[in-house]
Specification:
This protein has 498 residues and is of the alpha+beta class. It has 15 helices and 18 strands. The strands form four sheets. It has an eight-stranded mixed β-sheet with strand order 6-10-11-18-17-16-15-14, sandwiched between helices. It is elongated, with a radius of gyration of 29 Å. It binds one RNA strand of 76 nucleotides through α1, β1, β2, β3 and α5.
Length: 498
RNA sequence: GGGCCGUUAGCUCAGUCGGUAGAGCACCUGACUUUUAAUCAGGGUGUCGCAGGUUCGAUUCCUGCACGGCCUACCA
């Protein structure tokens, strides 16, 4: 700490020295003519004789390296686009201005004006005729060679990670392009993007512990949404036949390499479609996004290479579970028999879990870790899926699939249940099992049935296919990152006082 | 919630079989007109995560705590 204080003190002294010479270290603006990248490209074109040699360029950026050599000096200047080397000479700048360089540090932001040339070693460099301090930095940057390694600091001070580690910024640029490509794909197909409330009096559409908040003026408890589903379906009722939303949802559950309390979800609804159509849609979308962003449908993920080119493997949930665990859950039609079977196999089974949750446990224990290549698990038991329509030929099952890639659930889709009476009944059953499942204390008030949603269904929702995609996980797959924190700029960490 | 591991200078890391620490980068002083991990000569700047315990003495051993990582659990 003392070292840091000392460095800050030294920099404050430099700051005062600059002020003493009538230089404002934090001016309001600087009008650059080019970015670093543009400048380098321009010079190549100049050398090729395509454009005339310009008189003067103005660049601005952060100093990332300083090499003094007596009467000359080389700095590296970095902006959002790239890096350009700067050349300063006492001869050109004059004694007074050249001496000012001594009060600059790595990390300071400056504007420079000058002309480009190639050094002896061939690097395109700006011969600086004048420079302007744009921001004096008071803290030393992480070391240039190793960058910032400390994972906790990388997440808590992402700005330092972005400055110090070259690979961080491109990753988040890639994330941005992935989201754009998703949007493009859907918009091209006639889907309309909408925004629905984050603050909800009934947080439905999924079963997860909610974040609670309070609106003062209304004097009403509200919850952060845990899914986009119920509001988007209201819009389908209202005539948005093809609609989607990309938005943050919030789940008050554990944090892990695959879970962040707030994460980005895409939900798509298409009237007159069913889950098979959604399968084709997500297959096409992921493939399109991969080609548009990483330029390939093959991607390295840990020790595996994932091949995203369609068609993807489709296997029924029942077969997958049977294959991996040896249990055919159709043979155990009620909770007790299934639980006994699982206990027989030496699994520790939570006695409050209903049959749907037991099946879910079989999936996550036996099946999910093996689904590295894109795989659709198809046809789920009705107990696990209160918002999905029953299969045409098997009323115990629903038309639903989950998409797994890299051992993670990446998407979930179903043929939406649009029978308002059955929907009410399913909610009611869900509420029963849930209260008996002894949820956590703050959740004992359990899920209230969303009456307004049911009312909407009573007006009539066309047959509809719905799809949800975990955008963060999709980014993980496409960028080959095994922790969700690597693809979220500011992942949730515990507050640390210091 | 449980298990394992980590926390030493601004950054990246050594180290002390228990005698209060050291290297590179960064930083400070000086030299240097084509450097680019510049080089050369000097300079060590630290609550060794926090709190207890054992001990003549703890950064080191023990216990607890905090934060983080991985695993596990939880998780429609």
């Amino acid at each position: 700490m003392a070292r840091l204080e000392q460095i800050t003190r030294q920099r404050l002294e430099k700051l005062e020295r600059l002020r003493g010479r009538g230089i404002e270290p934090y001016p309001h603006s600087y009008h650059r003519t080019h970015t670093c990248e543009e400048a380098l490209k321009l010079f190549q074109r100049m050398e090729a004789g395509e454009v005339p040699t310009p008189q003067e360029l103005r660049l601005a950026g952060r100093i990332t390296s300083i090499r003094f050599m007596g009467k000359i000096a080389f700095f590296d200047l970095r902006d959002g686009s790239g890096k350009v080397q700067l050349f300063f000479s006492r001869e050109r700048l004059g004694d007074g201005k050249y001496e000012l360089l001594r009060d600059l540090d790595i990390g300071d932001i400056i504007g420079v004006a000058g002309s480009l040339f190639r050094t002896k070693t061939g690097e395109v460099t700006l011969d600086v005729a004048d420079f302007t301090v744009l921001c004096k930095s008071l803290k030393p940057l992480p070391e240039k060679w190793h960058g910032l390694v400390d994972v906790e600091k990388r997440y808590r001070r992402r700005y330092l990670d972005l400055i110090a580690n070259e690979e961080t910024k491109p990753l988040f640029v890639a994330r941005s392009r992935i989201v754009s490509a998703v949007r493009e794909f859907l918009v091209q197909r006639g889907f309309i993007e909408v925004e629905t409330p984050v603050l909800q009096s009934v947080a439905g559409g999924a079963l997860a512990r909610r974040f609670k908040t309070h609106h003062e003026a209304l004097d009403e408890d509200l919850y952060l949404r845990i899914a986009l589903e119920l509001h988007l379906k209201r819009l389908v009722v209202g005539g948005f036949d093809k609609v989607f939303e990309i938005g943050r949802v919030f789940r008050n559950e554990g944090i892990s390499t695959k879970h962040n309390p707030e994460f980005t979800m895409l939900e798509v609804y298409e009237a007159y479609a069913d889950y098979s159509d959604m399968m084709g849609l997500v297959e096409g979308m992921v493939c399109y996004v991969a080609r548009e962003t990483i330029g390939s449908t093959r991607v390295k993920f840990g020790n595996d290479t994932i091949d995203l080119s369609p068609p993807w493997r489709r296997v029924t949930l029942r077969e997958a579970v049977k294959e991996r665990s040896g249990i055919d859950f159709e043979d155990y039609p009620d909770v007790d028999s299934l639980r006994h079977k699982m206990e027989e196999m030496g699994m520790e089974v939570d006695p409050t879990k209903d049959r749907g949750r037991l099946v879910d446990e079989l999936i996550s224990t036996f099946v999910e870790p093996h689904l590295i290549q894109p795989t659709f698990l198809v046809d789920y038991p009705v107990e696990m899926s209160p918002l999905a329509k029953r299969k045409r030929d098997n009323p115990g099952m629903v038309e639903r699939f989950e998409l797994f890639i890299g051992g993670m659930e990446v998407a979930n889709a179903f043929t939406e249940l649009n029978d308002p009476l059955e929907q009410r009944e399913r909610f009611r059953k869900q509420q029963e099992t849930q209260t008996s499942a002894a949820r956590s204390v703050e959740d004992t008030e359990a899920e209230v049935i969303d009456e307004d949603f049911l009312l909407a269904l009573e007006y009539g929702m066309p047959p509809t296919g719905g799809l949800g995609v975990g955008i963060d996980r999709l980014v993980m797959v496409l960028c080959g990152k095994q922790s969700i924190r690597e693809v979220i700029l500011f992942p949730q960490l515990k507050t640390k006082g210091d």
